[in-house]
Amino acid sequence: MRFSASLLLASLVLSALAKPYWRRQETDPTDPTDPTDPGGADGDGDGDDDTDADGNVPNLGDGNGIPDVSNATNPQCVPFYGVRDAILGGIFQGRCGDSARAAVRLAFHDAGTFSLALQALGDPTGAADGSMIWDPTEVTRTENNGLQTIVGILAPLPAQLGVSPGDILHLAGVLGVLACPGGPRVDAFVGRGLPLNTAPTGRLPNPDDPVPLLLAKFADMSFSVRSMVALIGAHTSGKQRFVDPARNGSSFDSTVDVWDVDFYGETAHGTSDPNVFMLDSDVNIAGNASTKAEFHRYIHNQPDWDEDYRAAHFQMSTLGYNVTTLINCTEIMPASINLTTLTINGTVDPTLLEAATQKYRAPWLVPSS
Ligand code: HEM
């Protein structure tokens, strides 16, 4: 089904099913053996319905790993097929471009203001609640420089699609990962209500922070050292504009268009690619005694990173929420594009990459003129 037709169908379903979509779900979404896991449709026992375990692209819906609304299993997820298409097609155009990258960063800047310390005090804290596209002041903060365009694009969607800002923003985050070939299929949960409050300032890390401060900030968000190191691997598809404006548009690794582990190896060992820009924080985390082992774990180790990143991003996308109150709509997520079959002599082949994009992201691509 082409994007426009799919979007139309999903929009019709969306308006027909204008009813609350929150419902209790599985007992423990982080436990792959949880018998109440609504995922696991592929039966590979890893608690999701992705066939990463045997390396195949799942046969979801159309045979190209693209679940279709006509095969929806949870009625409460039906409206989210249209939301998926609006984001993956209407905004990302099926590709790992500026909007997809910005959406991943935005997910972190929205959720990363969550603080266990503030929560314990009963003070207003951040959360994965979409306040970045709901409160007009947050995006004007210096720490959020560069996110204005994606915020402007996503902000109207809650009203247009009848979905909460948190669901829009964090679906955009997990779809942004998937838009990048190699990006894993992070579980997609929905059912967040209106944002809790304006997020507090000064919680997000910046590249000048020493490693102990970075560790403290991530621990206060509830992340382990390993999760922090896995999460910053999102820089695999990132570019900088404001840290060194003279090098605006330089990327954090030499393969910015794919979600691979080159970021880890190049940050730890350096690269001769003049277009690569390394953040001080990433270099410091790669070399610091308390983080080095975790950082080096992922060099040349995409499977470990995929698994850890999926778990950490899911945790990030639900910060501040009791996940048992949310709804697992991972069924809307297309399959990850597996880089292994696209790699020749250790390098992703551009022709194979484009062919895979055409095949597995077909409904959302904009035909070239
Ligand atoms: C130590 C923690 C982190 C620091 C200090 C940091 C800092 C930065 C900085 C300074 C930029 C460049 C902004 C610009 O100049 O345009 C950036 C970009 C980016 N960051 Fe991070 N970041 C951190 C963690 C994360 C995490 C946890 C994620 C997501 C899971 C993430 C995702 C991204 C992405 C995708 C970009 C590229 C955005 C684009 O290309 O438009 N970052 N980050």
From TrEMBL:
Residues 1-18 form the signal peptide. SUPFAM superfamilies: Heme-dependent peroxidases. It comes from Mycena metata. Heme b binds at residue 235. It holds the Pfam family peroxidase. One of its GO terms (biological process) is cellular response to oxidative stress. InterPro entries: Ccp1-like, Haem_peroxidase, Haem_peroxidase_sf, Ligninase, Peroxidases_AS. This is Peroxidase. Disulfide bonds join 77-329, 96-180. Its EC number is 1.11.1.-. Coiled coil: none annotated. One of its GO terms (molecular function) is heme binding. PANTHER family: CATALASE-PEROXIDASE, THYLAKOID LUMENAL 29 KDA PROTEIN, CHLOROPLASTIC-RELATED. Ca(2+) 1 binds at residues 110, 129, 131.
